[in-house]
Structure formats: structure tokens, C-alpha cells
Design brief:
The chain contains ten helices and seven strands. By secondary structure, it is of the alpha+beta class. Strands 2-1-3-7-6-5-4 form a seven-stranded mixed sheet, sandwiched between helices.
């Protein structure tokens, strides 16, 4: 690590690294982390956003990375004023619910990504969420990068640690952080699509398994979740292509090739999601056809039993009309004979229906 000027701050273990030049600035609850990076290395100490950017601009090198989690408009206004963030982008970052997009405001890039997480539950209902979504916004400037996260997943702590362990990559500047964020999000897409692939394979096996009862609700649930994933993946293709093609000089030349790799992964995910949608449509049609076939089979069984039961009912109805002159009414063996006829007729009909696979 290069010899850096003393900052007079305490290290993470709470021990004084150098004589104190100024007090550590407290980090607000909505600020997950605020760090200064010079030549790919993190400067020790605790920073607030104003002191961090002042230090970077005093040095003339390095950048600031601030991570925020669901800040309010009041909380982010100070940061927006210090870094010169556009009010429209700030409004989007606060209120969320945006489509994936890439916008440029003067010397700042603003990118929105949808984050996804696969939820594995044993029992699923019509209101269950298999794919849990959130949002991640990135403000990118010449000497700063600000990430704003909405949702309870897609934390960036692991990404920050990985980049800090790779100073050469981090030395490429804020665009390296943007690439890391995009790569992490797209990798999560791949993990989710693989998990959904397993679920769809199970549903497909169940649909085409003979003599199984199909719950069409599960297929509709899966199709709904695939549509949610598609809304996160497909709109991101164009922004990723623009970053890979040199949309702005704020993206370092060495980083563009990495964006091409992310773009390839995203294209793979998009193809998989499209294939899922088509396959689920096919499974819905197959399920409806199977349900119709099961209903027809059930109706044939019901009709067969109705025919069997109606035979003794008809005979009993005839001999229950109580006319004076009816054959065999006065015969001693009339009742046993009628019962035998009923039984034989029912047995004959049963064998006929069983032979024709109605029963």
C-alpha cells in the first residue's frame, strides 16, 4: 500500500493510528458505509460525506463510495447538495419503484437496477412471492459513487470487501464500482433463474406424469413470478449495452470490456426468462387439456354408475305402479326373480363399462 499522508483518525479496532488532526464524523443510520479510496486502497478512519469528498478533492486523486439504505428525502438532501446530484434523480432514488434505466445529468450518471432474490418455501399459495424484488440506484461522478438500496436483500457489503481485496480493480475508479454492482445484480439473476429452472422442471414432470392431479394455481403462480423477473431483466439490456459501447467518458476504457461480459450474462438470463415464459404457457395449455381429460373421465364414470343404478330403479318403478293385472305379481318366486334380474343386469352393465374402460 502506498505511503499516504496521516489523517489523524482511529482505525477499526479503535486504536489511534496517528495523532488526532480532527474528530471522526459520525455515520448516520441510513448511511451503510462511507469510505475514501486512493490508488485502490481504503483510507482508515470514519468519514462523513462532506469530509470524504473534501479529502479526495484536496488530494486530487481517489474517489468516495457512499452506501445508503432507503434514505428519506430529508436525509439525502445534504448529500445531494454536496455532490451536485440532479433533483429528478434524487427524487427517483428516494421514492423508488423505477424501471431499470441509465440517465446522464451533466457530469453525473444515474443508473437504476432491479434486485431479485429467490424465496424457497415449502408451501406456496396464490399470494406467495417466489421472486422477491428490490431496487438499487447508483450515482456515478468523476470522483464519487453513491449507491442507494431499497429492499431487505442485495446487500453490497460483500462486494465492497471483494473490491477492497482487489486494489488493482478498485484503482480504476468509480466505474469499477458500477461494474461490480451491475455484475453482482446480474449474477443474482443467474442464481434466481437456475432456481426457477428447477421448479419448472418439477412442474413439467408432474404435468406429464400419468394419473397425477395437477394444481394449475402453482403454474399460474410461477408464470407471475417469471413475469416479475422479466420486468427486472429485459429493460436493463439497453443500459448495459450503452455502458459497454462507451456511452460516456466517465466509464474507464479498461472497464468497458467488463461491462461486455456482464451484458453477455444478462443476454443469457433474458433468453432463459423468455424460454421460461413460453414453457409455462405450454404447461398451462397441457394442464388445461389434462384437466379437461380428467373431467371427461370422471363424467364417463358418473354416467356409467348412473346407468347401472337406473336399471334396478326402473324395474322397481315398474313393479311399484300397483296395477291389478301385472305379470308375476301373484307368483311365489316373483320377488326373488326380480332381484336376480336386477343383479344380473347390473353385473352385465358393469362388465360392459369396465371393458370399455368407463370404470
Amino acid at each position: 500500500m502506498p505511503n499516504l499522508p496521516s489523517l489523524g483518525l482511529r482505525n477499526r479496532n479503535g486504536r489511534a493510528a496517528q495523532p488526532v488532526a480532527r474528530k471522526p464524523a459520525p455515520v448516520s443510520a441510513y448511511v451503510v458505509d462511507c469510505a475514501v479510496y486512493v490508488d485502490g486502497h481504503r483510507l482508515e478512519g470514519t468519514w462523513n460525506h462532506a469530509d470524504a469528498i473534501d479529502e479526495v478533492r484536496r488530494r486530487g486523486t481517489g474517489f468516495v463510495w457512499i452506501g445508503l439504505h432507503e434514505p428519506t428525502e430529508e436525509q439525502i438532501n445534504g448529500i445531494a447538495e454536496t455532490f451536485g446530484l440532479h433533483e429528478l434523480a434524487v427524487e427517483d432514488a428516494v421514492h423508488a419503484h423505477q424501471r431499470p434505466k441509465l440517465e446522464r445529468y451533466d457530469n453525473t450518471l444515474f443508473m437504476v437496477l432491479k434486485t431479485v432474490r429467490y424465496t424457497d418455501t415449502e408451501t406456496r399459495t396464490a399470494t406467495s412471492e417466489i421472486v422477491d424484488t428490490g431496487e438499487l440506484m447508483v450515482f456515478l461522478g468523476r470522483d464519487f459513487v453513491i449507491t442507494v438500496r431499497h429492499g431487505k436483500h442485495a446487500e453490497l457489503g460483500d462486494l465492497r470487501c471483494r473490491l477492497e481485496d482487489d486494489p488493482e480493480q478498485l484503482a480504476l475508479g468509480p466505474s469499477a464500482v458500477l461494474h461490480g454492482v451491475a455484475d453482482t445484480v446480474v449474477d443474482n439473476y443467474l442464481d434466481v433463474t437456475e432456481a426457477i429452472q428447477d421448479d419448472i422442471d418439477e412442474i413439467e414432470a408432474e404435468v406429464f406424469e400419468p394419473r397425477t392431479k395437477i394444481d394449475a394455481e402453482q403454474i399460474y403462480l410461477m408464470k407471475r413470478e417469471v413475469m416479475e423477473l422479466r420486468r427486472a431483466v429485459q429493460p436493463l439490456s439497453k443500459p448495459m449495452q450503452r455502458l459497454a459501447e462507451g456511452y460516456t467518458p466517465m466509464i474507464a476504457e479498461d472497464v468497458r470490456s467488463y461491462f461486455r461480459n456482464v451484458e453477455d450474462h444478462l443476454a443469457r438470463v433474458s433468453e432463459m426468462v423468455g424460454a421460461f415464459d413460453e414453457l409455462l404457457t405450454t404447461l398451462v395449455d397441457a394442464t388445461l387439456a389434462k384437466i379437461t381429460l380428467q373431467q371427461n373421465t370422471d363424467m364417463r364414470k358418473i354416467s356409467a354408475w348412473v346407468a347401472i343404478i337406473s336399471t334396478p330403479t326402473m324395474i322397481a318403478g315398474i313393479y311399484g305402479m300397483n296395477f291389478d293385472f301385472m305379470p308375476e305379481t301373484g307368483w311365489k318366486f316373483g320377488y326373488p326373480m326380480v332381484m336376480v334380474v336386477m343383479l344380473v343386469a347390473c353385473m352385465v352393465l358393469f362388465k360392459i363399462f369396465r371393458k370399455n374402460k368407463w370404470l
